[in-house]
Design brief:
little secondary structure
């Protein structure tokens, strides 16, 4: 609908990392590849009365214990 008018909101985030430090991600995603302009969640029309929302971006890392 408004392909060239994306709203970008800066968000701050605080993380507390703890534990032994023995687990590490095996791979990552470069910041320039996190989102694309046609990714679900980036392209989202609130006027279709959606009942679900797909968060944009790569899968969350779940290997931490």
């Amino acid at each position: 609908m408004y392909e060239d008018h994306m709203l970008s909101i800066a968000v701050g985030l605080n993380l507390k990392v703890g534990g032994s430090g023995s687990v590490a991600p095996t791979a990552g995603v470069p910041g320039t590849s996190l989102y694309t302009k046609d990714m679900p969640g980036i392209v989202f029309n609130i006027y279709t009365n959606p009942t679900t929302y797909t968060f944009p971006g790569p899968a969350l890392w779940t290997a931490a214990n």
